[in-house]
Input
Amino acid sequence: MAHGTGESDGTGQPVPRPLPASARHPLWWLLSAVFVTAAAVAAVNRRHDIASALRLMGAVPPAWLVLGALLEVLSLTCMAAMQWWLLKLGGARLGFPLMGAMVAAANAVAGALPGGAAFAAAWLFGQLRRRHVSLVLAGSVLAVSGLLSALALFFLLVVGVLTGSGSGPGAGLRSAVLWLTVALVLAATAVVALSRFPSLRRRAWRLWRKIGVRTPRMWDIEEGLSRLVRHVRVSRPGVRPWLAPFALAVSNWILDVACLIACAWGLGIALPWPGTLIAYTLTQMTGALRLTPGSLGVIETSLAALLVLYGLPADQAIALTLLYRIASYWVLQPIGWVSWLLLTVASRHGAVTLRRRPKV
Output
């Protein structure tokens, strides 16, 4: 949650927003430089495979790249729909096209700098506040959407590990994933029990409150999430209201996987299933650290290396990874920055108009 103030929201009130302090730390830039250097060294060592990969990419019909880009747009639309749905559950009313533009712009911001996800969250938080979404609801929606997205990605990893053959990098993950799944099921059972039994909920709340008092940031997150959950329980009790945003979070990842499949079909590559699903999820988990702008070099190296471990020839793995990154990252960047520019101009125009309006 916010502990500082940002720009005006157009009403004369400062806009609190999260402080991406970790993204400003020099360590992020150092790690980014290290990973970029390592990726460059790997590229030099694999220059013959890269040359072969580029020849494979040159033979891909443009229609497959267009299809991959369209799937990525749909994936981003699902992410916007999830956050829009959560805002609707919390009582906020924003137009879906506006939400889609904000998510596209935040995605571009996230890909611009090391640790860009923190800057994107701060920017999106400020945009929601300018549109009169309460501080608590804006922070809660960002937190819950991040949690649902992480759970959806973990769900895909579980599917990949359970349907795997027990070979490759996923073999060593099977027991760890199963234990984590059991832990998540127990946590979900505890949440259901807390929602059903008021006396148990009061005791847990007193314990949680003590923890929150000792850690102010946890207290802020706790307060925001609890208010959002209370609002949803009053307006739409039960588990059903949460199924739609979780389904949208899963759809976001599935459409991204579909983009990878479309790129493989365009290259004429037979993917090693279900190892590809494990390679994809592990790559996305690594890329979520945002050690470089847009995880450039990190995702390319991780995905190509994992696909090779699952039996794909190096030149095909590199070609698939590069084509997928063109569709999933580079095509979306100009769309996001155009959205960012339009939203910024609209916000400033709205603020200027409000300042010039005569006071009654």
Remarks:
- Strands lie at 4-8, 14-17.
- Confidence is low (pLDDT under 50) at residues 1-24, 352-356.
- The longest helix spans residues 62-89.
- Residues 89 and 232 are 6 Å apart (CA to CA).
